[in-house]
Amino acid sequence: MHRIKIAFRVLVFMFGWVILHYALPQHDIVRVVNTYQERQDLNDWTRIFWARPDDQSATIINRDVQFIQTVKKKTYLLGFVPRDTTEVMVYRNEDTGWSWPFYFKFDTASLQTEADDLRSTPEQPKWAVVTHYGWRNEYFSAFPNAVAIRPVDSPNVTIIPWFNIFFFVALMAAIAFIRAMWRQFRERTVDPIMDSAGHRVDEVQADIAESRGRISRWLGTWRSKK
Predict the structure, then answer these.
(1) For residue 75, what are the contacts with CB-CB under 8 A and spacing of at least 6?
(2) CB 109 within 8 A of CB 56
(3) What is the pLDDT of residue 201?
(4) Is the Cβ–Cβ distance between 68 and 93 less than 8 Å?
(5) Rounded to whole angstroms, how far apart are CA atoms 156 and 129?
(6) Is the separation of the CB atoms in 53 and 63 below 8 Å?
(7) What is the DSSP letter of 79?
(8) What's the pLDDT band for 195 if we cut at 50, 70, 90?
(9) For site-directed labelling of 90, which of 25, 43, 65, 150 has its Cα 20 to 30 A away?
């Protein structure tokens, strides 16, 4: 039973980690190479990797999506330590509207214009920080969704994810608070009920044992007479 509890907790933790890794904002230092628009089919299960900014998007099977092509600086330690090498990264640029994840993004056109303005060449690079969520997967045609972009002076800037830090601090505080409330509720309500039920079970078992003893003694009196 103990191993089942541990396995269940590990599964819950991994599921929560996957959801948070997808939905929480991440920051990349990039150089914008190009922007374009392309029609995407939304008629299979990979639809989950695309935004649903309005009710109509739940029924249409394809729509035009804007993309931002970049060259991204590679990093160590979840983006805290930059590397000298780069890699290609493509972002989609979609409104999230009022749907999940709750970025309330309505400025797709403005973001695309800002990205166009930051386009540059390797000889005269312009560096920028792209804030995004989601994953890049070539097999499933999944692209991270850019939610903001801003220019920076160099590719060696250090970006501190303040939102994620505050989020995890608040999450840990909420978990500790809920755990304390549950322990208090269990001590005041659940444990007394379980103790009472245990005492009742003991009493029933004692009554059954006593009844069996009486029957055994009664049968013993008949055997002695024979």
Answers:
(1) 29, 81, 82, 83
(2) no
(3) 65
(4) yes
(5) 11
(6) no
(7) G
(8) low
(9) 43
